[in-house]
Amino acid sequence: xxxxxxxxxxxxxxxxxxxxxxxxxxxxxxxxxxxxxxxxxxxxxxxxxxxxxxxxxxxxxxxxxxxxxxxxxxxxxxxxxxxxxxxxxxxxxxxxxxxxxxxxxxxxxxxxxxxxxxxxxxxxxxxxxxxxxxxxxxxxxxxxxxx
Length: 147
Known about the structure:
HSP20 family protein; Small_HSP; four-stranded antiparallel beta sheet; HSP20-like_chaperone; Immunoglobulin-like; A-crystallin/Hsp20_dom
């Protein structure tokens, strides 16, 4: 096995223009820029049980009223929007950022879904959406005896 050492910096890169590196370091380390460059889509777990599909969506810091769940044909869309605006009259700001976050996730539903049996619950930062199955889609389990 051969180990090759790669240089971490190019030789004399700061000698060419010392302001270029510091500009880009400051630009990409600014929280205003990095928050907008990173897409914030919550992680999702999807599980199937005998009687339902369960969608778990990690969305901490939101409230029940922030979520909207729409079902259209064979598509379920989960979206959330939170806008927080604090007005403090007695302070002078040199920089003030409003807190605003939103996301939308869509999932296609199989034909075995019972559209009248969809429930959602938000507990401890996790949105749990339970989508029930039709009765004919629930497979009856039985033990087959070998003769």
